[in-house]
Specification:
Length: 307
């Protein structure tokens, strides 16, 4: 999936980079073998954390299922390219919507009404449901979906995504075949650097130099303890484009705290917590990442009795 093939359904950040392809290749090989043997389940539950390859797997599965030539993952035919670009008429993504952030009954009704229709041009029609845990899949919507999920037509396949399959309603889970994707720790091992903390594995697999980034922030924090603020400004600026910027900064703060001990360490532990809370606000409100990181770091700096 090259940069030119980025799906408009997910951002490039959500889909991840080509570094993920080596990690998810064994999963796709299993799917390809099931498809070629005529054993592809009609309803598949992909269990894996967001942004650790599950979105990428879903797009590639949709391409394989619709491909007229029955091509492999990464097939370059026009149909597969359109799926990867998000413009294939036989592939639909259903995401949470509304104030509650749930897949709602109207979205399910649209699926149920469309399911009987034959594919427009591909072998199969594919619906991808992003996030089907009980808190994200409204109960009314889930109940309305059960019969269609259990007995879809031959030309229909469903791909359901969940970070925690145990949080999926049993009535939904029992109607799907589960496919578990590698977790963060496994990805760190596959990436070949067991020193990378699991919570930063996604950033490492995506090509980020996590070790250097953490070291740079640590240096900035240590300089700030001596009254030098410029390093904090540079650290926030450098982390602005990093999807895992908040986590990198928090990890660096905890590392420095571990070296210090005492009251000075407490302040760094608190800023680490503040950074992780700021990450949630930034994602929910689409705030500027660099400014939120800088605000947390400057708040800590001022709490040390410096201006």
């Amino acid at each position: 999936m090259s940069d030119a093939d980025v799906s408009p359904w997910w951002t490039a950040e959500e889909l991840g980079s080509e570094h993920l392809d080596a990690v998810i290749a064994p999963v796709l090989e299993r799917v390809e073998a099931a498809r070629d043997a005529g054993r592809m389940p009609r309803s598949l539950l992909l269990a894996g954390a967001p942004r650790l390859g599950r979105e990428r797997v879903a797009v590639k599965i949709a391409a394989m299922l619709t491909c007229p030539a029955g091509g492999p993952p990464g097939c370059s035919c026009p149909s597969c390219r359109r799926v990867r670009s998000g413009v294939h008429p036989d592939v639909t993504l259903v995401r949470a919507s509304g104030k509650r952030g749930q897949i709602v009954i109207d979205q399910v009704r649209a699926i149920v009404e469309a399911v009987p229709g034959k594919p427009f041009e591909g072998r199969t029609r594919v619906w991808i449901l992003d996030g089907v845990e009980a808190g994200r899949f409204g109960r009314e919507a889930a109940n309305a979906f059960l019969k269609t999920l259990e007995e879809p037509p031959d030309h229909v396949r469903f791909v359901l995504l969940a970070a925690n399959p145990e949080a999926v309603l049993p009535t939904i889970r029992s109607r799907c075949q589960r496919l578990v994707l590698p977790g963060a720790a496994a990805m760190a091992r596959l990436f070949g650097d067991t020193s990378i903390p699991p919570e930063l594995a996604a950033a490492a697999v995506a090509g980020a130099d996590v070790g250097t980034a953490v070291g740079d922030v640590r240096s900035a924090l240590e300089a700030a303890l001596e009254g030098e603020i410029l390093g904090l400004l540079g650290a926030a600026r450098n982390l602005d484009p990093e999807p895992a910027g908040f986590q990198i900064a928090a990890l660096a703060a905890l590392g420095v705290a571990g070296d210090l001990g005492g009251e000075r360490a407490d302040g760094l532990v608190h800023v680490a917590a503040d950074l992780l809370q700021a990450e949630g606000r930034q994602r929910a409100l689409n705030l500027n990442r660099g400014r939120q990181i800088l605000a947390a770091l400057l708040s800590w700096y001022r709490s040390q009795g410096r201006n």
